[in-house]
Design a protein that fits this description.
Length: 309
């Protein structure tokens, strides 16, 4: 990682409706607003074009996917170019017939595609039926040197895995972006809601601390039933908890959004703070890289027996 100049980042926390075209228009307007606030890198939530459709398994919903590159990326890239920003857009990618990915595209400020990242960890839980739609990513963890700075992008469920954050940071990323769609099951919120959000924020703050990088997590808000053009899931749906945030290299929250409002979060990334933090807390220096080979194993058993047993 070379120590460069500082840059301003923005997260667009937004609400999604049933019309994908309208969602796209609103998102692009928010990008323009973020650029007006001085942002040089802007990140949108996961799969921002539609309500979270993975609440059900429906073959017709594959029609929401787009080729990358293609007409959709051309439209988004044109907005990035008109605003002069680096833009991270999370998209439903149609790679080939029957092959789809949950993909984050980073656009340079001239509108060109700087990198493509395919979500590596794919969940499968009640109302989060992503394994039905998405093939696990095969491009690995990445960082990309943009005109603003060196950034890395992971997607939602990736945020629970320290290995992904570590590898992205080791490739030089100064900021880890996590486009997200995560929320509460309404029947669980009263009992577990506060703890679930706290765990989500804590694990990502730990990535910032362990790697000495900025972490920027952007979520959506609102109750959704996976409504796409009037076709929706019955029941209580999901309440997306917002709470987007930006943490500095020691895990301190420098920008925080509410749980229920559309907002644009802005913060400044200072590479000099990364340098200072890593000098005083040299976790990368003290890593025992000779001792971590077993991390490639699924499970290692029940532990080591004590002496004399």
């Amino acid at each position: 990682m070379k120590q460069g100049r500082g840059y301003r980042i923005a997260l667009v926390q937004m609400r999604m409706g049933a019309d994908p075209e309208k969602n796209l228009e609103v998102a692009m307007e928010r990008v323009r607003e973020a650029a007006g606030l001085g942002a040089q890198v802007v990140c949108l939530p996961e799969l921002f074009e539609a309500q979270y459709f993975c609440q059900r398994e429906d073959t017709q919903l594959f029609d929401l996917a787009s080729a990358i590159p293609g007409p959709l990326t051309e439209r988004i890239g044109a907005v990035a170019a008109s605003c002069g920003v680096v833009l991270i857009a999370s998209l439903f990618e149609r790679r080939a017939a029957g092959l789809y990915h949950n993909t984050a595209v980073t656009f340079e400020r001239d509108g060109s595609i700087a990198s493509v990242y395919r979500k590596m960890h794919i969940p499968d839980d009640p109302l989060y039926y992503e394994k039905y739609y998405f093939t696990p990513g095969d491009l690995g963890f990445q960082s990309v040197e943009t005109s603003a700075g060196c950034i890395g992008t992971l997607v939602c469920w990736d945020q629970w895995y320290p290995e992904g954050a570590r590898l992205t940071a080791l490739k030089g990323a100064e900021t880890l972006f996590y486009p997200t769609a995560i929320g509460w099951h309404p029947d669980e919120k009263a009992e577990f809601g506060a703890a679930q959000y706290d765990a989500w924020q804590t694990i990502q703050r730990s990535h910032a601390i362990a790697n000495g990088v900025y972490v920027a997590a952007v979520n959506r808000v609102g109750v959704e039933h996976g409504d796409v053009r009037g076709d929706r899931v019955s029941g209580k749906g999901l309440e997306f908890w917002g709470g987007s945030f930006i943490a500095d290299p020691f895990g301190r929250i420098v920008a925080l959004a509410s749980h229920d409002a559309e907002e644009i979060l802005v913060a400044d990334v200072e590479p000099s703070l990364i340098e200072e933090t890593r000098r005083n807390w040299p976790f990368l220096r003290d890593r025992r890289i000779d001792a971590y080979g077993d991390l490639t194993q699924r499970f290692l058993g029940g532990g080591v027996r004590g002496a004399g047993r």
